[in-house]
Amino acid sequence: MHITFVCTGNTCRSPVAEAIARRAIAERGIAGVTVGSAGAAASVGAPASGGARRVAAEAGLNLDGHRSAPLTEEVVAASAAVLCMDGFHLRRARELGGGRRCRLLAEAAGESGEVADPFGGSDEIYRATFEELARLVEAALENVKHT
Predict the structure, then answer these.
(1) pLDDT at 53 over 80
(2) 13 an active-site residue?
(3) What is the DSSP string of 50-77?
């Protein structure tokens, strides 16, 4: 099962969610689940934002090698689940053929709402986003594991 996390530019929220998920999968020994990330309006090859890199590093995660990738029909088709940060991303993923495999990350975690974009914000804003993503990703992985 492949899970793709989606945000706008694939430089903040989705690469952080991907890194959190990778670590959780490895630590818990979850078999058969892979993760990736993409952006609903991303260019190709941009690095993770400075704020995302800094707060990920504080948590022991390295985003230095991340390069942005756009959300495409191929990415959506290859994903068993497409977990989106907000309604714009969700609509775009569904337009690309994802249908019911596309959900808001919060919904997949058993919550409601959207994950706000920290781009351009302070490290404190990035830290708050990181904590929110950590909580949501952990819960979403538990839910995926039991389906």
Answers:
(1) yes
(2) yes
(3) HHHHHHHHHTT---TT-B--B--HHHHH
